Amino acid sequence: MAYEHDLTVYIGRFQPFHLGHLALLQQGLQRGEQCVVVLGSCHQARTPRNPFTRDERIAMINLNLTPEEQARMVFVSMRDYYDDARWVAAVRREVGKIAAQGARIGLIGHFKDATSDYLRRFPGWNLMPQDRMGAIDAVHLRDALFQGKDDPEAALAVVAPHVPAGTLSFLRAWLALPFLLPLSEEWRTLRAYKAEWAMAPYPPVFTTVDAVLRCKDHVLLIQRGQAPGKGLFAVPGGFLEARETVYQSAVRELREETHLGLLESDLAQALRNVAVFDHPDRSQRGRIITHAHYFELDSDELPEVRGGDDAASAQWVTIADLAAMEDRFHDDHFHMLDHFLGITDAGAGYLTT
């Protein structure tokens, strides 16, 4: 069979894999000899926005394909960089590892809203836009699953018209797993949080502050004591107070959450950099822009710390251990650390076949 492309690329999060996804994937398989599925939001902690792991999403997709179709598939795992240029470069690099020199590459997708603009950022690839299949939205499917935690069959009845048979079978088993309850509770917390601001005249934009504190080969982390992200690692931080500068708020939050006893002058002398993290999807709570302050302590000993305020615990973690903890961080806090500490190399995901 003569194919239009040597390789077709389909980028998505597939949380979960629904009929709209299947229709696009089938287009990719029909028009390309090989189809590369780029799985977004990998290496993330389980959250209401990312409830399914990389392996679970691959399983969902494969359950809906024939053995012949599976043999023509390659999956690429891609982390969220919260940096569009870096993300595009990473996707190109990983696809380039699969494509032969001069390969004809097609890009499958549809323009849902502003979040689909990434499809225009791959010049040289043949963009093949497809019509959207109905009004299927993965957000609503996840809402149905979390809302129906006490009655899985009722939840599946809501989801069933929008997902293929393989996904439905997967979800029936997935709903019996123990992590559904904490995910559902976090989903309810986030929903209540957003409802409090639903009557605001404009969509609210919040400002927060964070503190990345390095000493020797360690960095100071907390474990969150409350939802969202209860139990996940984060850097100390919180919301900007009305009568404080971002620096003053960062220092206050650092002291409140870790009981760090350093003098104000020592912290001021240790400040090395400030960076703004403002990706629209960086927080599940909504539009939150943070000012992250990077400190390097000139000390041979790690200062004593203990958790306080919203932090269940505070601890010094070896920087060399951070990469293995990526899927245990809240929101984009791993990427804040990566920005200042260079944890990852220029690479992105890794191949799974």
From TrEMBL:
Origin superkingdom: Bacteria
Pfam families membership: CTP_transf_like, NUDIX
Enzyme Commission identifier(s): 2.7.7.1, 3.6.1.-
Domain Nudix hydrolase: 204-340
Alphabetic keyword roster: Hydrolase, Nucleotidyltransferase, Transferase
Molecular function GO terms recorded: hydrolase activity; nicotinamide-nucleotide adenylyltransferase activity
Protein name (record): Bifunctional NMN adenylyltransferase/nudix hydrolase
